[in-house]
Specification:
The protein is mainly alpha-helical. It has six helices and no strands. Helices cover 45% and strands 0% of the residues.
Amino acid sequence: MSEPSNTPSPEGPGPVTADDVAEAVQITVAALRPASGADWHVPAGSLEWTCWETGEHLADDLFAYAARIGSLAPSLDEEEPFGFSRRRPQGPANTVTADVERGVGGLMQAVEACGGLLVAVVRATPPNTRAFHIFGVSDPEGFAAMGVVETLLHAHDMALGLGVPFEPPAALCARVLHRLFPDAPEEAAPWPTLLWVTGRGELPGRERVDKWRWYGAPRAT
């Protein structure tokens, strides 16, 4: 078997791949499923959304990224054309929702299904494909990285609300930091750094971040 494409190299931690999306979704579901009996209507960390709403938002993000970069005619200058709705005025605007009657198990299945769509699309889409995102036109690797970041951060948010531990692998965090956050400090551990650059944590000697974004533009070749 050939060596995985995301093996770290002297030039950096390696590219973000479809396998990284799959790993992020799998560790998220593994961390949150044990809390299926908890109250999922509590706030997800510092968000205004509940844990259930955040789970639906995550599924919706993964679906939307797959739809954008996987379209037969990707758009470079506009949002996807899907309709959306909110369960309540303060909740997220989602195209994808989960059947409440199916409970947390169904919600996790929705996250896994939409994650699988993004995994398949990233694997199948030519690397020179480009599609619109509000943070910059991006490529399949960029959308994979966005999917990983959304997954890890919202897993963190839900885990805080539900009172369960969650800490993703350092190498996975390092790859998405390298791809989407070029100005991120390199001296701290990758997971605390990812939380810091997205306004969710502290780093010694640095002010807390209150406004943030990522940079999805493809790598220069």
